[in-house]
Amino acid sequence: MDYAVYGILQARILEWVPFPFSRGSSQLRDQTQVSCIAGGFFTTQNGVNPDWEKKVIEYFKEKLKENNAPKWVPSLNEVPLHYLKPNSFVKFRCMVQDMFDPEFYMGVYETVNRNTKARVLHFGKYRDVAECGPQQEVDLNSPRTTTLERQTFYCVPVPGESTWVKEISFISTFLFSRSWKSFFNPSFNAYVNANQARVSPSTSYTPSRHKRSYEDDEDMDLQPNKQKDQHTGARQAGNVGGLQWCGEPKRLETEASSGQQLSSLNLSSPFDLNFPLPGEKGPACLVKVYEDWDCFKVNDVLELYGILSVDPVLSILNNDERDASSLLDPMECTDMAEEQRVHSPPASLVPRIHVVLAQKLQHINPLLPACLNKEEGKTCKFVSGFMSELSPVRAELLGFLTHALLGDSLAAEYLILHLISTVYTRRDVLPLGKFTVNLSGCPRNSTFTEHLYRIIQHLVPASFRLQMTIENMNHLKFIPHKDYAANRLVSGLLQLPSHTSLVIDETLLEQGQLDTAGVHNVTALSNLITWQKVDYDFSYHQMEFPCNINVFITSEGRSLLPADCQIHLQPQLMPPNMEEYMNSLLSAVLPSVLNKFRIYLTLLRFLDYSISDEITKAVEDDFVEMRKNDPQSITADDLHQLLIVARFLSLSAGQTTLSRERWLRAKQLESLRRARLQQQKCVNGNEL
């Protein structure tokens, strides 16, 4: 899509906030109805409904099933934060970058009217700030107060997410929202009454630990964060002490200057959003999960639906907590202040999302159903319909990649196999299904590799190009490490979600010396390729994080890094202007055809695959025969390689079982590849 058109569409859609539910008879018509949902489930004539939380979740699950309702929910990935009102119902597509300590909050609390002494129960779920009406205050000593626990995750937009994924998601929202003549903001005012609210600083606290030596690393002292009794920066409406903030807050716009927020926090440097990849954009969020948080782990990709919390009061409270901590021991104060700064950033920079519904995503391709394993009618119909036209799609994709690889059809075959490869299981420590390809013979001092990566970017949902220069290897942070002072996981380049395409460009490597950090980075890349794991650095120990990353290496000669398969490029043409050639190649492909390529490459990753007993016996006999003819020509590793090639060759044709025909084709491809490498060895002895 033309970026100018994309910008115009973005400007137009931001004039509205689409209503999240369908236009059926049971839809929510206005904010008043939305406000009543949780409150209505929470209380009954007989008191608190014990099943209110379950009813709220079930309600939204049902609503989101109606007529493409998820497309109506404003997304933080597409809509800038300052266009969303506080307490809106929103969605967010993200990766779990870090997991913070559990947080305790007032699940149920009681307010007392100072004049009438009337008592009212409130729920603290889905809130950062306790709410009470005029002349009310929170009774912290009430026996009906209930303390509950929630888990906080630090989530960032999916690293390396392709532009086309963002565009398709955005345009999808635009098309659905445009069909309305008027729009409603789905504010979740069950949790805030902006005109009458009186605010208590916080409904929660996180365990604050004294910093410890290595010997004391496992001993954790829990202590609530200290808060000031009064907030002098607020407009006074009475002398109320304790936890109440004695102001009469009005709803503040979320577009408050981030610069003012930073200065109010006395930050010495701009807040680091801790994105794994450089140049990433989008909001990072503190995600608060109330149920089943054990299902989620670091690096998982999630789609969240929940309540957006951007109350400016949070920044004021956190600043006051830092002031209170300054009364402690200076060394301890420094550590606590750093942890507080990271764990409680300004809400204008890092909004909070209180999760109502969450699901782990298999993939982020917006052209496919979110879950491909479900045997639902729509999903099965979509998959079967696409599989029926798979053969022409593969043929067109092969032709497209052949042109991208300068006329080399054999290299295009292997690139297809690489792009649909995935780790399907692990046997002990060995990841089965990984298929790292090294494309050698790439022209040096050319823009070929850069433009080849652009082609890959247009095909896969997430990717990153690592320019393997001496400077980058010595200075970039590849491995995530634990910062104990801030109590957070500092991201690195290799903190990537599953199915990310990592393109390593070795053609830029020149003579030079790797320092200690550079050697560690090369080792980390080698471990990623060989074992599909990254060892995160926790100072006193390494923690192994398994991954599923497709690594594609471009190089002039054989790569310095290990690879499962080396294919030497044999260009059939060398265009005088590489940029013009690649641009014309992309512009010649119809958007509908490009979308079919994208569906093809994502869908085939998730197909089941098996080998019948009959074919297994035929493969074994074939292997024995090959060993008889030339024992040195094929080893057990070569057989494994043949089986991997045969697997992805079958899947690329839409076949979920290995046939004799595909086995012979796999042998033919491998024979051609080996012959080409042998030929190159004769030309250049150090090639192999």
UniProtKB/TrEMBL annotation:
Residues 199-242 are annotated as: Disordered. The keyword Transcription regulation does not apply. Its main location: nucleus. GO terms for molecular function: chromatin binding. One of its GO terms (cellular component) is nucleus. It is found in: Nucleus. Keywords: Nucleus. The keyword Ribonucleoprotein does not apply. GO terms for biological process: DNA-templated DNA replication. InterPro entries: MCM_complex-bd (IPR019140). It comes from the Eukaryota. Signal peptide: none annotated. Pfam families: MCM_bind. Belongs to the MCMBP family. This is Mini-chromosome maintenance complex-binding protein. It comes from Muntiacus muntjak (Barking deer).
